[in-house]
User: Which sequence fits this backbone?
């Protein structure tokens, strides 16, 4: 092919490349530069030429090959950019479109109760803490004044892990973690910034029926400071229960009880009507949570001098108060992930639990 035919080949190729779509561009590349391509065929003729002619022709062909390779790459880039643009346009999500109710999720009642508890106690100046699901024996039992052969350990149907750790049977070990941390920071003790925390979280016991699940949720509460009394405990818990059950006149009763980690210990009951299930009405009492003044041994175990600092603690089962508040009969429904159930018992995600609105 004479030299000016290479110009023709280049001109024609450039026209076709400029007009190619994604598929025809690949076909063009093969027909020009592929094993049997036009330019490849020209390159193959070099071997039969005498050295001078080969040198001149080779240089021209190399230029042509470079120009075509570049034209193909540029066209490919243009096509790819256009393809991306059209995908972006086609897959655009209109975030301002109204929610389609049939696909909208809902806040699970357990999460909602946790948020409500957090809202109530944050208004009282409590911070929210958490701790690990896997605990050591000391945090979960011993430091809480539950001795090695104490019946409370058996009461709790503990899941033991290889290595002696446990799945925490209650949120109370976070009391220990918090007090240890507090006692270690000398400034906290010196300035006596009180501890005021709630600890919502998962807990585990080998137990399974309509009212017990091997995994369930509790919220712990802990207040430590100078001169904390049973009066503070009662005030906080009465306010909490009245806000949570949305009833400013809810009857609340404190009944002497026993927990190893508190002294004195109290079970807290609310008034209800056993027959109708109505909370705050009738003359029956329903046990809601455990509480008490932190046992001096527990304070001492955490390096806190019980003669100087006192406090109260409580523990409440989240499933239980959620079932009571919303009339949910079977605890297992919480964990079945049935969207029909969630649609009925769940909460709109755009109306968060805010105390000033009431729940
Ligand atoms: N840890 C107890 C339980 O799981 C609940 C509890 C009772 C926690 C009294 C407390 C408390 O902090 O003071 O059964």
Assistant:
């Amino acid at each position: 092919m004479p030299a000016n035919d290479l110009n023709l080949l280049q001109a024609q190729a450039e026209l076709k490349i400029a007009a190619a779509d994604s598929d025809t561009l690949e076909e063009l590349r093969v027909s020009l530069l592929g094993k049997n391509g036009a330019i490849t065929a020209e390159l193959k003729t070099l071997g039969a030429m005498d050295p001078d002619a080969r040198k001149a022709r080779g240089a021209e062909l190399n230029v042509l090959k470079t120009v075509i390779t570049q034209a193909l790459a540029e066209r490919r880039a243009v096509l790819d950019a256009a393809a991306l643009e059209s995908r972006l346009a086609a897959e655009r999500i209109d975030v301002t479109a109204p929610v389609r109710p049939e696909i909208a999720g809902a806040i699970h009642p357990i999460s909602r109760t946790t948020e409500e508890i957090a809202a109530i106690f944050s208004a009282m100046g409590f911070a929210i803490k958490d701790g690990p699901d896997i605990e050591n024996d000391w945090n979960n039992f011993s430091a809480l004044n539950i001795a090695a052969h104490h019946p409370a350990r058996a009461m709790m149907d503990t899941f033991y892990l290889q290595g002696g750790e446990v799945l925490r049977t209650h949120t109370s070990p976070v009391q220990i973690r918090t007090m240890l941390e507090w006692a270690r920071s000398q400034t906290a003790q010196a300035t006596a910034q009180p501890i005021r925390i709630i600890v919502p979280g998962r807990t585990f016991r080998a137990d399974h029926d309509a009212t017990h699940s091997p995994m369930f949720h509790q919220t712990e509460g802990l207040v430590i400071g100078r001169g904390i009394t049973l009066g503070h405990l009662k005030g906080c818990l009465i306010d909490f229960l009245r806000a949570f059950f949305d009833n400013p006149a809810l009857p609340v009763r404190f009944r002497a009880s026993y927990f190893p980690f508190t002294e004195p210990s109290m079970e807290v009951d609310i008034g209800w009507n056993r027959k109708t299930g109505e909370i705050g009405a009738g003359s029956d009492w329903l046990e809601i949570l455990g509480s008490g003044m932190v046992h001096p041994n527990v304070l001492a175990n955490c390096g806190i001098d019980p003669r100087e600092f006192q406090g109260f603690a409580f523990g409440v089962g989240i499933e239980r108060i959620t079932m009571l508040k919303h009339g949910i009969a079977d605890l297992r429904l919480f964990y079945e992930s049935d969207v029909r159930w969630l649609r009925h018992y769940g909460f709109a995600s755009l109306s968060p639990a805010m105390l000033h609105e009431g729940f």
Summary: The two ends are 88 Å apart (CA to CA). Residues 170, 172, 220, 259, 262, 290-292, 313-315 surround 3,4-dihydroxyphenylalanine (CB under 6 Å).
